[in-house]
Amino acid sequence: MFKSLKSLIKIFTLALITVIIGGIFIKLKYNKIIETPNSDSSEKITITINEGQAVDLIIDELIDAGVIKESWRTYLKTYLKLNDLSSKIQAGTYNLPLNLNIIELIESLQHADSQDIWITIPEGLRKDEIADTLAEEFLPYSTIDFSSTEFLSLTTDSEYISQFEFNDEVNNLEGYIFPDKYAFSVDSTTQSILTKMITTFVTKVGTNDTYEDIIIASMVEREGYNSTDRAIIADIIKRRYSEGWLLQIDATLLYPVKDWKHVITQTDKNSENPYNTYKYPGLVPTPICNPGLEAINATRNPKPNNYYYYIHEDNGTPHYSTTLNEHNANVNQYLR
After folding, report:
1. Whole-number pLDDT of residue 133
2. What is the mean pLDDT of each run of 10 residues along the chain (336 residues)?
3. Which of 11, 149, 157, 183 would be a feasible disulfide site paired with 116, CB 3.0-4.6 Å?
């Protein structure tokens, strides 16, 4: 009898452990999915929700429009039920980007009369490119008085910069305008828009990195293609810098030209500007773009290696080398 009881207890315990582990797995998957962007695309889709429209029909419409994945239907319904949000979805016409996650999507659908303006700023843009992107996105909204000139002026305004408590050497916010997905209110001002982006940098990146680190991260952002690639390139750049080599980074030549697609010539490499790392040793005066967290983390945690040179094929495949002869051979084999 006792043996049977022990067996039952053992079976019950194993079953309970299985249920607990299964529950934890389901919870982790649920949390991950509701925070995962629906898409990489920031294209905006217009959705109309009618007064009294059933939640299931709303979800059907969202799926048909591509705003939410069909496979996420159950997770969306669960999120609505757990948070008692079905009744809070408002009728109206919405302009929604495809890259919202479930939390952001449902938050947006609760504010038909005061919709936020969603704008995605990709990694690696210069501040003037960000200003142009914002100006274009805000153009249809008469309530926002956005000025590219004011935006760029604020990025070098010492009094404005001082509020963020960056290192004293930071006198230009290039590199600190964090690339991210933003929801701007319809009554935003130029200053509030920039402040939100800098505050996001402070929140997600922090203020412990040196100015030199952010400058290097900006080069890593423009030169690398993925997390592995960037970590290797970060080590190469840091080592060349510490050993007094010319950095010879193409992206730095493109910064003052303000054209990332400019075909670099020998004239560019001979030019006398402080961003010419083919001619002048050391780092450039400022970051050359606004790096994302991946490039910043690669700079914080570079992957040790013995390379001093690297190139990329047109498809992004990297080739590294330790000597100039090896580098020239890679250039001849993969770029010519």
Report:
1. 97
2. 64 68 73 88 88 90 91 90 89 89 90 86 98 95 92 97 92 97 93 97 95 98 92 97 95 96 93 94 97 97 94 90 93 87
3. 183
49 beta partners: 92
Kindly tell me the sign of the dihedral angle through the C-alpha atoms of 45, 50, 52, 57.
negative
pTM of the entire predicted model: 0.84
DSSP 206: -
Helix H or strand E segment including 108: helix 102-108
Length of the chain equals 336
Could you give the C-alpha distances from 188 to 145, 173, 185, 195, 260, in angstroms and in order? 8, 20, 5, 11, 30
* Beta bridge partner(s), residue 183: 118
- Mind listing the domains of the chain with CATH numbers? 44-108 (3.30.1490.480), 120-204 (no CATH), 211-305 (no CATH)
